[in-house]
Structure formats: structure tokens, C-alpha cells
Design a protein that fits this description.
Shape: rod-shaped
Mean pLDDT: 84
Number of helices: 14
CATH topology of the largest domain: Hypothetical protein af1432
Number of strands: 5
CATH superfamily of the largest domain: Hypothetical protein af1432
Radius of gyration: 40 Å
Strand order of the largest sheet: 2-1-3-4-5
CATH class of the largest domain: Mainly Alpha
Strand content: 5-15%
Structural class: alpha/beta
CATH architecture of the largest domain: Orthogonal Bundle
Oligomer: single chain
């Protein structure tokens, strides 16, 4: 006996017929053929509850019955059998086309005409159960596939989150590396890592050739960060490359002008100068905020994007609150 036949013979079968003789005949036929899990009822009103308790693999259903006919039974079942393939084999003495079409529309899969032919009934049941089990197997495969997809999606989400954390950590560490060379620098000045100490740490005013060397830190920073698909790393590189460009085109390294300067670089330029002016350094005292803002406003349209200067003025109280909250204790 093969596995497919074993599976069929253990199927959950429900017989629904108001005639006890018909029920007994079908039960006997199925039992003699080896089916081991057969239930029956002569009251169609019980079908809905029986199905919910047993999840039948096939229902052998009479059409003409008191209280509820076979069409009404199928209509009730349609509300609870969703996303599943339930074979319903119609048992009927009616052989007209209208009855058959109506039964098919209601959910029937096949027909057996009364009086029953034993081999016909058994073959139709077996064939319908094969389809039923193939469908259930496909559902199980889909569930397994869906589970694998969900697992893989979660793994990718976790991986993406880890990559984002790693990228942010790289940026922070690059900033820290820059601070070891020049404690006043930030992430935008990471390229100062590549500037010789004799120039970077010179206490006095830089000579023109030394200032030319300092200006290379923007391109060095861009090279250090490199090109990435990550939006975060792309932004970091853009800021490193363009925070010394000026609105009027007199900045470096590429002499970009106006809106040719990426917005990230234009924003960093305003913030960088404000921070530099208001911060104390070993070689200078920090300016008062009003003096620093006066300089930034004077440079609107020259060094800085005028619209960004306007916005910077508008949010200055928030900026001062943030600076106070995150002041460097050193």
C-alpha cells in the first residue's frame, strides 16, 4: 500500500443525507474499501458545526433535504471555508443541467447520481481527495516559503540596521581620528588627518604656501570617506568636500558657486564659521554671539547662501540651546 493511498484512506469524510439508508450504504462502502475516518449526519443543520470541529477533507452532500437543502449548506460553508479547497461531492437523483450548474456555482466539485454505483463513488472520492491533498501540500509549501521569506526579510532588516550603525560608527571614529590631530576639528575636517603637523599645528599665521596645503584637507577628507551607496556616507563625503566653497564662487577646492554647491556643504559652511567664531582657541578668544552673527549677516550673498543665513537667524535661539546642552566640558 503506497503513501498516497494511506493518506486517502485516513481522510476526514463527512456524509450528509437525510435518508439513513443512503448514509448506511455509503458508510459500508467506504469502510469495506479501507476508509477509517468517516462521520455522518442526517440533519443538514449540523454540518457547519461539524466542519468547524473536524476540518473535513471531503463532504458527500445530498441536495434535497428538509430544514436546509444542499445549496443552503454550501452557502453556509462558503462563509467559513476561506483560503481552502474543500471538495464537495453532490449526491443527487436529479440529473438536469440546471441543478448541476447551480451546484457548481455554489461550490460543488463533482456529482454522483443516485442510485450509487460503488466503483464510480469510490473513484470520484479518491480523485477528489488527491486534489485536496495536493492543495494542502501546496499550502504547506507556501507557508514554509512565506516563513523563510519573513525570516530572510528580518535578517536583511537587522543587517541593514547593523550596517547603518557601522557606518555611523565609522563617521564618529573618523571624527575622533581628526580630533587627535586637531582638537578643534570636526567630521567635516577629517581631511586634516593628512595635513603635516608642521602646518596643521603651527601656532602663528600660515604662509601662503602653507595655507594652500591646509586647503587640501577638503579633498583629502573626500578621499578618506570615499564613495559609498550609503546615503549617510555620501552626505559625509559631500560635506567634507564642499564646506569651504563660497556662495560667490571664491571658495575651495573647486570654486563652486551658488546652488552648484550642494545644500549640505552650504549648511555646513554657515554652521562651521559660526562655531569657529564663537569658540575660544589657544590663539584667540571666542566672539560674542551678536558679533559672530553680524559677520555672518555681512557675508550673506558672498560667503553664504542668503536664504540659509535668513533661516539661521530664525533658528538661532534653538541653536544656542543645543550648543548649551552639548557644550564640551573641556
Amino acid at each position: 500500500m503506497n503513501a498516497a493511498l494511506d493518506k486517502a484512506l485516513s481522510a476526514n469524510i463527512l456524509i450528509v443525507d437525510d435518508k439513513p439508508d443512503n448514509v448506511s450504504l455509503l458508510e459500508m462502502m467506504l469502510s469495506f474499501s479501507g476508509y477509517t475516518n468517516v462521520q455522518s449526519t442526517t440533519d443538514p443543520r449540523e454540518v457547519e458545526g461539524l466542519y468547524q470541529d473536524n476540518d473535513f477533507d471531503i463532504i458527500l452532500l445530498d441536495i434535497r433535504m428538509p430544514h436546509m437543502d444542499g445549496f443552503q449548506v454550501m452557502e453556509r460553508l462558503s462563509h467559513i471555508v476561506k483560503g481552502d479547497y474543500l471538495p464537495i461531492l453532490i449526491l443527487t437523483a436529479q440529473n438536469d443541467m440546471d441543478t448541476r450548474l447551480k451546484a457548481l456555482e455554489a461550490g460543488a466539485r463533482d456529482f454522483v447520481t443516485k442510485p450509487f454505483d460503488k466503483m464510480e463513488v469510490l473513484n470520484r472520492i479518491h480523485n477528489m481527495l488527491e486534489v485536496r491533498f495536493l492543495y494542502k501540500e501546496r499550502l504547506q509549501q507556501n507557508d514554509i516559503l512565506e516563513s523563510k521569506v519573513k525570516k530572510r526579510t528580518l535578517e536583511l532588516q537587522n543587517r541593514n540596521e547593523e550596517l547603518a550603525r557601522t557606518r555611523l560608527d565609522i563617521i564618529r571614529r573618523l571624527g575622533r581620528a581628526g580630533e587627535y590631530r586637531d582638537n578643534e576639528t570636526g567630521m567635516h575636517d577629517v581631511g586634516k588627518i593628512g595635513i603635516p603637523d608642521a602646518v596643521l599645528l603651527k601656532p602663528g599665521k600660515l604662509a601662503p604656501d602653507e595655507f594652500d596645503i591646509i586647503k587640501t584637507h577638503s579633498e583629502i577628507g573626500g578621499d578618506i570617506i570615499g564613495e559609498h551607496q550609503s546615503d549617510l556616507m555620501q552626505m559625509a563625503r559631500t560635506i567634507a568636500l564642499t564646506h569651504h566653497e563660497k556662495w560667490d564662487g571664491s571658495g575651495y577646492p573647486n570654486g563652486l558657486k551658488g546652488e552648484d554647491i550642494p545644500i549640505e556643504g552650504r549648511i555646513a559652511a554657515v554652521c562651521d564659521v559660526f562655531d569657529a567664531l564663537t569658540s575660544s582657541r589657544p590663539y584667540k578668544t571666542g566672539w560674542p554671539v551678536d558679533k559672530a552673527m553680524a559677520f555672518i549677516n555681512e557675508q550673506s550673498g558672498a560667503h553664504f547662501d542668503p536664504e540659509l543665513v535668513r533661516l539661521f537667524n530664525a533658528v538661532l535661539p534653538d541653536i544656542l540651546d543645543i550648543r548649551k546642552a552639548y557644550v564640551d566640558p573641556t
